[in-house]
Design goal:
The chain is of the alpha+beta class. 27% of the residues lie in helices and 32% in strands. β12 and β13 form a beta hairpin. α3 crosses α5 and α3 crosses α6. The longest helix is centred in the last third of the chain and has 22 residues. The two termini are 33 Å apart. Biotin (BTN) binds next to α1, β3, β4, β5 and β8.
């Protein structure tokens, strides 16, 4: 772990909280700059699409709260920033490049199982809109049942035998996140997109994308310049901005 904590970024570690994303929402208006809020245990962690996220002691749960500014599109692209940062932090703490893969839109996989969940939430309403919460959960020690959604949940410990503490993981994650966020702000989405594609799981293979209303099967061709999924189906190419993907 060679990188140092990013300057100007706060760090708060709580023994227990309902949800670090909820805590970020409570604190956002009083923060003068970006902050990492980590909890050693969450009692009401939340996942995507209203699912619960179980977070026993020893797993990583943290939220990066900031006021990103810029176009709405670029704000949402921080989900890819988060996935790349988590990927790099995992390589940093395990020294195992090539073990981790990225699943659209923003999961990180290990040995085909779900290791990481990422949940972006905007904070505030009306004139108050402007803060973004990037919540990240990593199964460092435990792989709670039912957490993987479409995939089998796995833990870093069970798959690699490597034990990493939440504090150690945050030390690796915060600089990696700052690096990729800086790339996004400076150069736009293109380098993020390319880096993400280089680590994408099942590129060129058959997948199923389920939206709220439909299910589409086809070949995963990549992501477009906004981050939407590109799927080649029997009916032609589909551009899918939001869905759950099944392998
Ligand atoms: C998913 O469904 O895959 C997303 C899970 C996101 C979980 C993290 S843990 C830290 C942060 N706080 C929450 O309540 N959720 C996110």
């Amino acid at each position: 772990m060679s990188n140092s904590w990013p300057s100007g970024v706060g760090r708060l570690v709580l023994p227990e909280v309902d949800s670090t994303n909820a805590q970020a929402a409570r604190m956002a208006q009083d923060l003068s700059g970006p902050y990492w809020i980590m909890a050693l245990r969450q009692t009401k962690g939340r996942g995507r699409r209203g699912r619960d996220w179980h977070d026993p002691q020893g797993n990583f749960a943290a939220t990066y709260v900031s006021r990103p500014g810029g176009a709405v599109e670029q704000v949402a692209q921080r989900s890819f920033v988060a996935a790349l940062a988590v990927h790099d932090a995992l390589v940093d703490v395990t020294a195992r490049p090539g073990s981790f893969a990225l699943k659209w839109p923003n999961d990180v996989l290990l040995n085909g199982g779900k290791l990481v969940g990422i949940l972006l939430e905007s904070i505030g309403q009306g004139a108050q809109v402007g803060h973004l919460a990037v919540g990240i959960g990593v199964n460092l020690l435990h792989a709670p049942e039912g957490e993987g959604g479409a995939l089998r949940p796995v833990s870093l410990l069970s798959e690699t035998g490597i034990s990493v503490t939440p504090d150690e993981f945050l030390d690796a994650l915060a600089p990696a996140f700052a690096k990729w966020e800086n790339q996004l702000v400076t150069f736009g989405f293109a380098p993020i997109r390319q880096a993400w594609l280089n680590k994408a799981a099942r590129l060129g293979e058959r997948i199923v994308a389920r939206t709220v209303h439909d299910s589409h099967e086809g070949t995963f061709e990549g992501i477009d310049a906004t981050g939407a999924l590109l799927l080649r189906t029997a009916q032609g190419r589909r551009i899918i901005p939001a869905a759950d993907v099944f392998f």
